[in-house]
Specification:
This protein is of the alpha+beta class and 303 residues long. The protein has two domains: 122 residues, 2-Layer Sandwich (D-amino Acid Aminotransferase, Chain A, domain 1); 170 residues, D-amino Acid Aminotransferase, Chain A, domain 2. Strands 7, 8, 11, 12, 13, 14, 15 and 16 form an eight-stranded mixed β-sheet that branches. Bound molecules: pyridoxal-5'-phosphate.
Length: 303
Amino acid sequence: MTRLVYISGEMVPEHEAKISIFDSAIMVADTVTESTRTFHKTPFKLDEHIARLYRSMKLTHINPQMTPEQLKKITLDVLAANLSNYEDHQDCWIVHNISRGLSVPGADPTKQLGAATVMIFTQLMDLRSWANFYREGCHAVTPMSRMVPSQSLDPRIKNRSRLPYTMAEMEVKLVDPLAQSVILDLDGHVAENKGGNIFAVINGVLKTPTTVNCLAGVSRATALELAQKLGIPTQETVLLPYDLATADEVFFTSTPYCIMPATKFNGGVVGDGKIGPVTKRLLAAWSELVGIDIVQQALAQIN
Ligand SMILES: Cc1ncc(COP(=O)(O)O)c(C=O)c1O
């Protein structure tokens, strides 16, 4: 069945969804965003994603002209309209992109001249590029580009102005085509990945940067909640590359893969080079929480 997408008030086949070349999404990359995933075709923490989206819109003064409840209803309608596109064992993303709408060159770019452009679509949860990392761990690498400082743009505003993240990811992939970025802030503190948060297990404590320099990831919060339930001490703190290089375990968190273990950092081995016990316990707890073996679901896509 053709995918149906939502664009500014209408649900249409994807080839009919069009935006103007003058949309602020293109003119100034002036778009806030969310990516939610399903487990068993049910959205995971959709309320938290919508709440974060509305916080991003409050800060950027983008007015979607609908309430969070209305947006949630439309989101669930888009999912329902597309569910038959996915097989029983498959899940999907639900993506929200909301731009300020038409931008007229020369006008004050901070003004929303008309309706915001609200775009919502689903997409197959394709886990193939991460799946093998559940078996072997990935290579975490620090790029030469640093985070846009929080003093310039608060990283908690989840937005589509992605060039800095793309540059950072490109730089690490020049070092190792399968590398995943560990972007540092201007002080050299570990911040985040281009699409994920970063954790280290150090002397039995699960540590992650504070949200001073990274997105308040929904998966980050889930990992912290699960650790607390399992009795694993947690700490939000400053981490340096030294801490990752000497950690017992390192992993990333993000909506699609939930937890992605890293067994190498900047060419060196993390811990004993194998996926560690805390990472495994958290992956198991996450699978239990959502009623799906998340590792098997990903591995099934590459086996
Ligand atoms: C820059 C950045 N950091 C972290 C994350 C992880 O956030 P979440 O766990 O809510 O997916 C994302 C997600 O896309 C991101 O874009």
